Amino acid sequence: MNREDFTKELQKILDDNNIGTMATVRDNKPMSRYMYFYNDGLTLYTYTRKGTYKVEDLEKNPNTHILLGYEEREGLGERYVEIEGKASLPEDVTPDIDEVMAKAGELYEKLKGEDDMQAIRIDIDEVRIMNDGGNAPEPVDL
């Protein structure tokens, strides 16, 4: 698959799937949890409460691994993406981030209103589309 087709397929998977796992590193061991993800193009966003282990983990080591998708397709297997990226913790929720994250609904608004919400931005370093028909899961650097 050429880079343009890959990017279109990746964009479709990101647009169509909001729930996935996010792994961080704590005490040199991986820690995974389910998260809601929102995307602006190929940049992912999620959120959590301030002071959580996720935030502490990412402050020490911004590397993260995300699994997103797993859509069942007849005869083609369950397609999903493996994402390696770097997370950052924006201090302020700018209007563009707020617009993307507002899709989260009531909990997002509640945390934002309580001033207890921490946005997490994930910039993708490398990604693989898994179980994509006959295509081998070659990593693509973004």
TrEMBL record:
Name of a matching Pfam family: PNPOx_N
Segments forming a coiled coil: none
Superkingdom of the organism of origin: Bacteria
InterPro entries named among the record's database cross-references: Pyridox_Oxase_N, Split_barrel_FMN-bd, Stress-Dev_Protein
Pyridoxamine 5'-phosphate oxidase N-terminal domain segment(s): 6-130
Name under which the protein is recorded: Pyridoxamine 5'-phosphate oxidase N-terminal domain-containing protein
Species whose genome carries this gene: Salinicoccus sediminis
